Amino acid sequence: MKIFCIGRNYADHAKELNNPIPESPLVFMKPPTALLIKNRHFFYPELSNDIHYEGEVVLKIGKNGRHIQPEFALSYIEGVGFGIDFTARDLQQKCKEKGHPWEIAKGFDHSAPISEFVPFEGLDPQNINVVTKLNGTVVQDGNTKDLLFSFQDIIVYLSKYFTLQMGDYIFTGTPAGVGPIKIGDRIEGFINSEKMLKCDVM
Ligand code: ZN
User: Fold this and answer.
1) Domains (ranges, CATH) in the chain?
2) What spacing in Å lies between the alpha carbon of 63 and ligand 1's midpoint?
């Protein structure tokens, strides 16, 4: 199982971090040990003093494929869920300054809480609302209509480089409103107004 992530896929989020808008999908990965399932608690790790939440729509891949053509791309999506791409912003900043890869800032243990999945069938890929609440307050409110690279674009692009396999996950990028967490916080994630995920920071 692989966990793909797309960075800077909403223009308003790229802007809030003063990043340029990418010309092709910005891809990175998290290892399977990053997963945190079943609404388990997130224990704030010692590796960082500035961990940020990034609430995202996550796709679950339902069949294997490579070099997927655009007209078939959406048929590879089995389910849609909510995930948090926890990011050690302090480590990421150091990596960026040195031009180093991001893995230690993005792929540490339990940096990828993921909800259960709802079937993709019947959803409009260009109109999925994704909301993150922090301690009951809405901090992110995005819609996949604002994605720079659509689900279709992402699957076509990834499958040029990697065989997509059943059970793989794709974090599709975060809208504006990311911010730091602290011990005692509760993060909740919603897809189309349905509560999908709860994550308490311990
Ligand atoms: Zn992200």
Assistant:
1) 3-200 (3.90.850.10)
2) 24
